[in-house]
């Protein structure tokens, strides 16, 4: 069992900032994240979306736009972000946390993630593998963020569709597109498609709607 002053559940923008600042104040901090350190904005929303919009505004070929997207996001490699947290004094634990008591969290480690102190499993002494890690804390910060919601539309489950995460990493330009949701991410998706439709004759007749 590993004891920390603060445990942060979620390694998105908010979680990373909180963990870094608290560690800078001399507290022991663990950050639990099963996905990408840095969260939605850096890999699946703002940065890649703005990169694609910039490429479209410059009239760059799709192949160049895709290359730029990979460059600005590090190709979905968050190792540099995790290393920055480690240098700041934050212990990064790859996995999903579950509160089991007022001061205790059980983390189910992501496959291949290194075990933290107090872990269980065949490689808990410091290697990698599946298993659980128990953490205790004085303070808990919940910064788990969100994920795209799939609406209950009849027939939707029977067809291929993208979530916003799929769309931002699409390998080809769609010939038509319906966007469900008019928030920032949905509006960006519409803008990317419209920009490409105006510049690429193959998709000039793209159907673009926001509902």
Q: What is this structure, in a nutshell?
A:
By secondary structure, this protein is an alpha/beta fold. It contains seven helices and seven strands. Strands 1-2-3-4-5 form a five-stranded mixed beta barrel. It has a two-stranded parallel ribbon with strand order 6-7.
Could you please describe the fold and organization of this structure?
- The chain starts with a strand and ends with a strand.
- The chain is an alpha/beta fold and 211 residues long.
- α3 (46-57) packs parallel to α7.
- It is built from seven helices and seven strands; from the N terminus they run βαβααααβββαβαβ.
- The chain folds into two domains: 2-38 and 78-142, FAD/NAD(P)-binding domain (3-Layer(bba) Sandwich), CATH 3.50.50.60; 156-210, no CATH class.
- Helix content is 34%, strand content 23%.
- Mean pLDDT is 81; it is low at 117-128 and 198-211.
- A hairpin with a 2-residue loop joins β3 (90-101) and β4 (104-109).
- The strands form two sheets. The chain has a five-stranded mixed beta barrel. A two-stranded parallel sheet has the order 6-7.
β content, as a range? 15-25%
Lateral arrangement of strands in the main beta sheet:
1-2-3-4-5
Rg value? 20 Å
Shape: elongated
Q: Into how many domains do the coordinates divide?
A: 2
Which oligomeric state applies? single chain
First-to-last CA distance: 49 Å
Question: What topology does this entry show?
Answer:
Elements (H helix, E strand, L loop, with lengths): L1 E8 L3 H12 L4 E5 L5 H6 L1 H12 L4 H12 L5 H9 L2 E12 L2 E6 L22 E11 L21 H5 L8 E3 L4 H16 L8 E3 L1
Parallel strand pairs: 1-2, 1-5, 2-3, 6-7
Antiparallel strand pairs: 3-4, 4-5
